[in-house]
Design a protein that fits this description.
Helix content is 24%, strand content 32%. It has 228 residues and is of the alpha+beta class. The radius of gyration is 19 Å and the shape is globular.
Length: 228
């Protein structure tokens, strides 16, 4: 199966027994859409929220949460739960101390709006985008090398300045893009670490979810390549 060969983990490695223990049936995973399944098998958080069991004291609760797979050193695969949490930006994250302005950007825009150097779990420093997951309020880092800004977006060739701004995490207004109904529209574009794509906002003629999907499709070919 191609999906198993092109992802970090295969369906055979999914710990369905552990999923069952937290209340997620195997069918819910097997019915994932193709892109969501690919992301899931690559260890990314699920796009959807799932109802999972949580033990708090002697009480058992059902809470909405995102899920992801995590490879362990012994080769086995574990399940990680990401419940909805209170919106908060810590003073320090992955070795970076946030300024008042950076905290404000994350809390107000849910996007840092620039790249920042962070220290990964392996102790190595790298450049990242930062955003807050709109469904769980988690702070999500994304290495800049995971996104490549395309030459064109929905029929519009980006200028060098626009590409540089997008690559640096800034917002860029793009006019004259062609929608599905062959109607031109304008939108503000920005790299979204939480969605691992280039998101659209302040648009006309198109629905945001459609635009985000189109942006994701435009990004697929450039994923995991360094932004120049």
């Amino acid at each position: 199966m191609e999906q198993q060969q092109s992802t970090r983990m295969s369906m055979d490695q999914v710990p369905f027994d552990k999923l069952e223990k937290v209340g997620i049936k195997a069918d819910l995973i097997k019915q994932m859409e193709k892109q969501e399944m690919t992301d899931f098998l690559n260890g990314f958080r699920s796009d959807k929220l799932y109802t999972v069991k949580a033990q708090i004291g002697n009480e058992e609760y059902k809470i909405p949460a995102k899920i992801r797979l995590q490879s362990k050193e012994d080769g086995s695969v574990d399940i990680r739960i990401h419940p909805i949490q209170r919106l908060n930006v810590p003073d320090e994250y992955m070795g970076h101390k946030f300024t008042k302005e950076e905290k404000g950007a994350l809390l107000n825009d849910r996007n840092l709006g620039k790249t920042v150097e962070l220290t990964g779990r392996d102790g190595k420093k790298d450049n990242y985008y930062l955003a807050i997951d709109p469904k769980t309020n988690e702070l999500i880092p994304l290495r800049t090398k995971m996104i490549q800004v395309p030459e064109k977006i929905k029929g519009v060739t980006l200028s060098s300045e626009q590409k540089e701004k997008l690559a640096s995490g800034q917002k860029v207004v793009v006019d004259g893009m062609m929608g599905k109904n062959e109607k031109k529209f304008s939108a503000t574009l920005q790299v979204d670490a939480a969605g691992r794509n280039i998101s659209f906002s302040q648009f006309k003629q198109e629905k945001s979810e459609d635009l985000k999907t189109d942006a994701k499709q435009s990004e697929k070919q450039g994923a995991r390549q360094k932004v120049h």
